[in-house]
Amino acid sequence: MSHSSADISARHGTRMTRASRFARGMRLGTPIFLGYMPVGMAFGVIATTLGFSVLQAGLCSATALAGAGQFIALAVMRTGEGVFAVLAATTVVNLRYVLFGATMSPHLKNMRLPTQAILAFTLTDETFAVNIDDQRRGLSSGASMAGVGAIAWIGWVAGTVIGAAAAGWIGDPTTWGVDFAMAAMFTALLIAMAETKRHTLIGIVAGAIALGLPELSRLGIHIASSWFIIIAAVTAATIGLVVFDE
Amino acid sequence: MSDTFIWAVIVGMATANFVVRFVPIAVVSRVDLPRPVLRWLSYIPVSVMGTLVATEILRPGGELQLTLLNPHLLAAVITGVVYRVTRSFLGATVAGMAAFVLLRSVLGMA
Q1: How far apart are the first and last CA of chain A?
Q2: What percent of chain A has pLDDT over 70?
Q3: Predicted TM-score (pTM) of this structure
Q4: A109 Cβ partners below 8 Å, 6+ apart?
Q5: What is the pLDDT of residues A152-210, one digit of tens each?
Q6: Which of A27, A94, A108 is the closest to B17 by Cβ?
Q7: SS3 A27
Q8: Which chain B residue shows the shortest CA-CA distance from A57?
Q9: Containing domain of residue B9, as a range?
Q10: Are residues B52 and B74 in the same domain?
Q11: In the prediction, which pLDDT does B109 show?
Q12: Which B positions 53-92 lie with beta carbon below 8 A of chain A?
């Protein structure tokens, strides 16, 4: 009897560990939730003006989870373009995920394909930042990353549904400072990641490039803003690779 | 917009967004990357974060604001200080949002 109850508690313990890792990920992702709710609401409101039902807006957010990619899609739809133009736009905006995915990959080596699929599905700028910071501390696991993804997904989908359902009487959500939530979280994450002089310098170089790229239009060089992140990040990381020895 | 068109967009978006995220992970995690590539990848997160912060703080709404009266910049400084002291992302985010609302109303800028 005592043997079997020990087994049960051991099994229970394992299950708790995994559940508590998942719960820890959800707590880590709370700032993402705070940022996604209002932006999701904005998406819901705009989508209904283009003829999306509440169900369609919610499903789009639930299955695409694409943030900027979804807003771009709406903008292209509004111009009267066809489905392929819409999909091309969202894909270009989300090309940076190729880079994010490659960066995450060394940490996802021993995971099964279905687990990788779940984590890939919830890969966004914000979940990437939170998970990569957690990995740097050595605390991250598949379950915690899934927790971060889950809370982000809930915030995005709930926001969209609320926005679409209440499109008529929601005021401007930016009055509560929610439009600064993402910027604040990115700032805290940047400081957490800039732990060595080398990383600080690379981060500053990347920021400077990102600010400089739009100014190139004065020289007649026009780059679509959807490319700024990927160009600045790739250039700064390459400079870091060339300048710093191992 | 026609209902068929909206459904086509929803299905297409779901597929396009999943493929662009999943394929690199599925492929790259199954090969051994050379050391320089790994080192290059290790610089990507801080680069991405530098890019996002610079854009959100100094070019809010697409307009370059290199002034000390920029509420985004001041609120970001407060966010950074709170993070350094508390080491809490949630605490720093909430403090940053509160500081932003306050600064924006004081400085009277959007």
Answers
A1: 57
A2: 89
A3: 0.76
A4: B29, B30
A5: 999 999 999 999 998 777 665 556 666 787 788 889 889 988 888 999 999 999 999 99
A6: A94
A7: helix
A8: B10
A9: 1-31
A10: yes
A11: 55
A12: 53-60, 62, 64, 72, 75-76, 79-80, 82-84, 89-90, 92
